[in-house]
Request: fold
Amino acid sequence: MAGLRDCSVVYFGNDWSAENRTSSHHIARRLAGLVPVLYIETPGSRAPQSSARDFRKLWRKLFRMFAAPRKIHDWLYVATIPQIPFRKLPLAGALNRWLGCFLARRAIAKLGFGRLVSWFVVPHPAVLAKRLGETLTVYYCIDDYAAHPGMDAAAIQALDDHLTHVADVVFVAPRALVEAKRALNARVYFSPHGVDFDLFAQAADPATPPAEETRALRHPIIGYFGSLADYIDYDLLVYLANARPQWTFLFVGYVSSDVSRLREFHNVVLAGPQPYEILPRWAKAFDVAICPYVVNRQVKNSNPLKLREYLATGKPVVSVVIPETAQFADCVYLARNHEEYLGAIDRALAEDCVELRKRRMDSVAGSSWDARFQETVAVVDGLLAKT
Reply:
């Protein structure tokens, strides 16, 4: 019986070398352990900003557009196919489709791929779906991209809807998006994020040393790892840092928005991005982990990967209330405003114990990325067997 193991995968994702390890990376790596995978970076979801970083990335991606796929390991190759982000320009859609098809087919031919499955984790290259001779098209929807800052919301939403409609199967990570997807496609599966449980559980292991940089910090340490982006509630963080000057607020991750107000506090530490594999050593130092989000459309329709990573560490977790965090109300402290958030951290510090740590870890112990991946492959195998 034919299945995924008899195919090669053309995988459209975000930047392979992005600062954050996302579900796009987790699924792609596991696919490449099963079948040959061409991972296609598709910059161009939003127009570049005027920052030097954006222009450096733009030139780097344009240069890579004409390069041969680069080998990451035995069955995983990465290529770059930019999309023109200015979608309101005449012929932009046609150019994206023509150039994308040409470059993708050239890379596929160079690698000698046979029977194809196209796998999309981002919606902006949707014009390429069903145009590469693929047997099956998968859309693994991990976010509400039209709600992201800097997007042409109407254009990205139209591409997202198109991809949802034409895909043979749609996996949806955010619970809040499932019903909208089902209105466009009968084959929609709720597939929440997994977690590298064994990796993050290292934070609960007495043998794991805390990151060297944390050893001189004053406790309690209120910690966060991930991007400091526009979806972070900086008003909340300023309120907390001001209300509890004796606490240390530790932020581990890339800064992509204005954090000048945080830099004014002596009890705020911005550690910058750290390698994914050593995040448990940073989490080891946390007394409480926080999800301090602005509750907007983007966040409401998200499935925060770090929530499960935090829980796997066993650390107390305090979060704003959104559909995904509400599912863990029995082991996450939830807050709806600044005062509640501060009180929740106070309770988390006072109540933490071995029993609660075990409950938090148990809540995600069965949600590994391997388990999620096997569930996905089983569905895809079933569909391929019918083709």
Remarks:
- The chain has a mean pLDDT of 91.
- DSSP finds 15 helices and 14 strands in the chain.
- The chain has two domains: 4-194+368-384, 197-364.
- The domain at 4-194+368-384 is CATH 3.40.50.2000 (Rossmann fold).
